[in-house]
């Protein structure tokens, strides 16, 4: 299935999503992390999710991507009406979902070059023609100011934090998903890398008309990637949604207004 069709609109819909993880003590109850998340992301839209540490933002991204540790106990996730929860992880990727993880994993022994071509072949449904592919990779590396020698190194092995994040955006550009979830892609980036990575995300939005779900703690990335919607995520759900001005309010006042509300509700 091709994931690159910028003439159609894609819609990711998350409805009343509840997710738990197994407790490390096998005799104890599982831990409920997501407690009713509702979210709709359409092509061309950028949604920023901001929230305190441990509120469940990464859990939401893992649940959408299909991480086996995160059990959906109720609710639904659909992409263009298709049941994402019924899909395996690779089917989700082929359907057009992409996750740039907060902590990208190292894959010793697999070169970036092999990894990218294999992944692109899987999501595009056919192997890219070699001459086009080489040109495509070269251009993408140059746009992201990545040294071409990195392409022959093992995936993320020995990469600095910032280099790993840049490579996530390289994958985003090459795999051209319909909806991209970027989990703290800005963490650990120096000011120049932040600009380069943000430009990569903006190019993806322009070229693919992609939908972006951006999890972040900082408004600085939102100066480069303009969000259409900002959501405040507290206690396993979205407690308020608004426009970019909401991010400015959070920068100034923090989450006190929202955490106090949640504590009152949970105590009731
Ligand atoms: N596998 C797991 N086992 C036990 N607890 C877990 C597991 N995964 C997540 N949690 C807990 O679930 C809560 C939410 O974690 P999550 O990583 O989703 O939060 P977050 O909002 O992304 O946090 P941060 O902003 O610090 O990255 C945390 O309290 C975390 O310790």
From TrEMBL:
Domain ABC transporter, residue spans: 12-260
Xref: InterPro entries: AAA+_ATPase (IPR003593), ABC_transporter-like_ATP-bd (IPR003439), FeS-cluster_ATPase_SufC (IPR010230), P-loop_NTPase (IPR027417)
The UniProt record lists the keyword Nucleotide-binding: yes
UniProt keywords, alphabetically: ATP-binding, Nucleotide-binding
Gene3D superfamilies membership: P-loop containing nucleotide triphosphate hydrolases
Molecular function, one GO term: ATP hydrolysis activity
Cell inner membrane listed as a keyword: no
Entry similarity comment: Belongs to the ABC transporter superfamily. Ycf16 family.
UniProt cross-references to PANTHER family, sorted A to Z: ABC TRANSPORTER I FAMILY MEMBER 6, CHLOROPLASTIC (PTHR43204)
Name of this chain's protein: Fe-S cluster assembly ATPase SufC
